[in-house]
TrEMBL record:
InterPro entries linked to this entry: Lon_proteolytic, Lon_Prtase, Ribosomal_Su5_D2-typ_SF, Ribsml_uS5_D2-typ_fold_subgr
Enzyme class: hydrolase
PANTHER family: ATP DEPENDENT LON PROTEASE FAMILY MEMBER
All residue ranges annotated as the Lon proteolytic domain in the record: 134-234
Signal peptide: 1-25
Entry's EC annotation: 3.4.21.53
The organism's taxonomic lineage, starting at the top: Bacteria, Bacillati, Actinomycetota, Actinomycetes, Kitasatosporales
Keywords tagged on the record: Hydrolase, Protease, Signal
Protein name: Lon protease
Organism: Streptomyces rimosus subsp. rimosus
SUPFAM superfamilies given in the database record: Ribosomal protein S5 domain 2-like
Gene name linked to the record: lon3
Length: 259
């Protein structure tokens, strides 16, 4: 065997070894999937999601389903084959782990962080809804419970659920018009709707669970259209009051915003 052939063989072996190492080495990515949807007007895992005291509430029909994603945790081992598979599947998304979890978080800390975000989101969503209805949180008490689902992205749906239970459409009817409506979006106390990420996976979760209308933060229309389930209608929203108006228009057959 010539020295050149021997050197080529050694180089080939080194390259193959490096490729094998890359294929099986853990990488700093997280793989996300469509998660749960939960009707904020009803129960989730046997517990009422919205409980209101201090003011009369109304019976509602239809559903307001918040949509979530699930992602591999910060301690999970994600390798190159997982990433390649995720890139080619429409029901998965590959994201840098720091875009999903705070840097340095363990799985336990990530759960704690997400639940803290959810509790904060619930407080803000309550204030947004009561501000919209011109009611005081000194008189009206709201308890929200989504179990172990974390993060702030249910804020908009929480606010809509509170409004529907307290006032409906303002004319004796439901905001939903009896339909199964899903959506996502953060909310501020002033009623501004914010982007959340993962919307293409959330529309898939909503479609899987029977929703035909999806409320999406206006800035994420393009992402929501990427893998939109057949027959699903996107309604872009940017404020709580605008969302309520859109739902009323949807129910009455009026002009509804579109992506």
């Amino acid at each position: 065997m010539s020295s050149r052939t021997r050197a080529l063989g050694i180089c080939t072996a080194l390259v193959l070894a490096l490729l094998a190492t890359a294929a099986f080495a853990p990488l700093p990515f997280s793989v996300a999937f469509p998660g749960d949807t939960a009707d904020v007007l009803g129960k989730h895992k046997g517990k009422q999601v919205i409980t209101i005291s201090g003011a009369p509430t109304r019976e509602t029909s239809g559903q307001l389903r918040m949509a979530a994603i699930v992602a591999t945790g910060p301690d999970a081992t994600v390798r190159l084959p997982d990433i390649v598979k995720g890139w080619f599947r429409t029901d998965q998304a590959v994201m840098p782990v720091e875009s999903v979890y705070p840097v340095g978080d363990t799985a336990e800390k990530a759960v704690e962080h997400n639940l803290k975000d959810m509790r904060s989101s619930q407080d803000v969503a309550t204030r947004a809804a009561l501000n919209y209805l011109h009611k005081s949180d000194k008189d009206v008490k709201v308890k929200l419970d989504l179990g172990t689902i974390g993060g702030p992205s249910a804020g908009l749906l929480f606010s809509l659920g509170i409004i529907d239970k307290l006032a409906g459409d303002g004319q004796g009817g439901d905001l939903t018009g009896g339909q199964k409506i899903a959506g996502t979006g953060t909310i501020t106390a002033d009623g501004e709707v914010g982007a959340v990420g993962g919307v293409s996976l959330k529309t898939q979760a909503a479609g899987r669970d029977g929703a035909k209308v999806f409320l999406v933060p206006k800035s994420e229309c393009k992402d929501a259209q990427a893998e939109l389930p057949e027959g699903m209608r996107l309604v872009p929203v940017s404020t709580l009051s605008g969302t309520v108006d859109a739902l009323k228009a949807l129910k009455s057959g009026g002009t509804v915003p579109s992506c």
